[in-house]
Design brief:
Layout lengths: L4 H9 L6 E8 L3 E2 L7 H16 L8 E5 L7 H7 L8 E4 L5 H14 L5 E9 L2 H4 L16 H11 L6 H17 L3 H15 L13 H6 L2 E3 L2 E2 L7 E11 H6 L7 E9 L3 H4 L4 H4 L2 H15 L8 E3 L5 H11 L7 H6 L10 E2 L4 H5 L6 H14 L12 E8 L3 E8 L3
Helix pairs in contact: 1-13, 2-3, 4-17, 8-14, 13-14
Length: 416
């Protein structure tokens, strides 16, 4: 048995009364950084209050909380929740780069499935800064300075050097070039991801961007790091999201089963040897983690990827959505470019991917992203997504990735 699989299977094999359900979600609108006057407790508090109201419970029912963020101070989770209530519950602060929000959710799900609590709050928020996101590694002759990404940087440094552009854009741009060299992926196919997701966001009032773009506009947009243009890259964003996770027995006792979305499978995976063994930038940006997390989560849920109706995938850059299609098994390696260009991942296709607009268009406040995915899929499975509703959605999948590294894949089922 694969190491670590037992922990993932606790979700699928939890006693019926402990089966985790999402009973409430909430999120703020995602906005351009420094454009809203809110403090981070105000911002996160808006999402928490919305999630509690959606669940129809008070904060006094919450027994534990996991709060995720990347750039806030150490105990910012307590500061957020102290404005909601001073009940003395355990608060665990979580940081896992871009997978922070879904890591907080994974803790909440695990606590419920293990019987440690009946009602848990997962929160994610971010107020991002230009300085933090523009950072590039120091030029150290001969070797790289120690950092959380030093192994990832070593692979890129050896093959490509380091440019004076945003570091994450370099990682994913090199992965895009590698994909092109292996499979003939075109700039037009990369841009088609952005065209699709920006089109989806026109129906999402909480998205940072709500304008559609033509293929020509995406290709002609300002270059960030070739072949990626600005509209193929997730923006710096502020925002917050939250979810209330509860046991089946709590949902049943409080008459919530008709709106409680089931967590059928979930897996959190970190980097393995495959990330660094082959000098591949596709591996460095997380494809092996995605493949393993997806395999485990789907096995835990007892479903195949072909049964899933709607997905929120971590499209931090357009190329990563293509890489994720392949890693999750939507298509064979090299087939993702033609697949998105043919419309297989939008309305009327085989799946609807990123109906929210994804990170590219909805926005990417790091700590909130995974929980915003949870909110979107909860609305989809309840039939509450309004103009972006996927007809008949019954199974959903979320994929949230952080370099450094962590990947969380979650499979959700509609309320019974």
């Amino acid at each position: 048995m694969t190491a670590g699989l037992d922990a993932d299977l606790t979700v699928g094999t939890a006693a019926r009364d402990r089966a985790p359900h999402v009973i409430g979600v909430g999120m703020t609108r995602f906005t351009r950084i420094e454009t809203e006057p809110w403090t981070y407790p105000e911002m996160a508090g808006e999402a928490v209050r919305a999630a509690l109201a959606d669940a129809g419970i008070g904060y006094d029912a919450v027994q534990r909380a996991a709060v995720g963020f990347v750039f806030a101070p150490s105990t910012a989770g307590q500061r957020v929740l102290y404005d909601i209530g001073l009940t003395g519950i355990p608060v665990v602060n979580v940081t896992n780069n871009c997978a922070t929000g879904s890591t907080a959710l994974a803790l909440a799900v695990e606590w419920v499935a293990a019987g440690l609590a009946d009602v848990v709050l997962a929160v994610g928020f971010e107020q991002m800064t230009r300085a933090a996101m523009a950072a590039t590694p120091p030029e150290v002759p001969g070797r790289l300075a120690t950092s959380t990404l030093d192994r990832h940087l070593e692979t890129m440094w050896t093959a490509h050097g380091v440019a004076q552009t945003p570091l994450t854009a370099q990682f994913f741009a090199h992965a895009a070039v590698e994909h092109r060299q292996r499979y003939g992926t075109t700039d037009e196919q990369l841009a088609a991801v952005a065209v699709k997701n920006h089109a989806h966001s026109t129906a999402n009032p909480k998205a940072q961007f709500t304008d559609a773009y033509t293929l020509e506009e995406v290709l002609a947009d300002r270059p960030v790091h070739p072949p990626l243009t600005r509209s193929q890259c997730s923006p710096m964003s502020d925002g917050a999201a939250a979810a209330v996770v509860a046991s089946a027995r709590f949902a049943e006792a409080h008459g919530l089963t008709d709106r409680a979305v089931r967590v059928l499978g979930q897996s959190l995976v970190t980097d393995t040897r495959d990330t660094f063994s082959f000098g591949s930038m596709i591996d460095v940006v997380g494809s092996p983690m995605t493949a393993e997390a997806g395999r485990r989560a789907l096995a835990c849920a007892g479903v195949g990827i072909d049964e899933v109706d709607v997905m929120e995938l971590h499209d931090c850059f357009s190329v990563n959505e293509l890489l994720t299609y392949e890693a999750l098994g939507l298509c064979k390696p090299g087939e993702s470019g033609p697949m998105v260009a043919d419309g297989a991942t939008t309305y009327g296709g085989d799946w609807v991917v990123n109906p929210s607009g994804g990170l590219i268009s909805k926005g990417h406040p790091l700590g909130a992203t995974g929980l915003a995915q949870c909110a979107e899929l909860t609305w989809q499975l309840r039939g509450e997504a309004e103009g972006r509703q996927v007809p008949g959605a019954e199974l959903a999948l979320a994929h949230n990735l952080g370099l450094g590294g962590a990947c969380v894949v979650t499979v959700y089922g509609s309320p019974r």
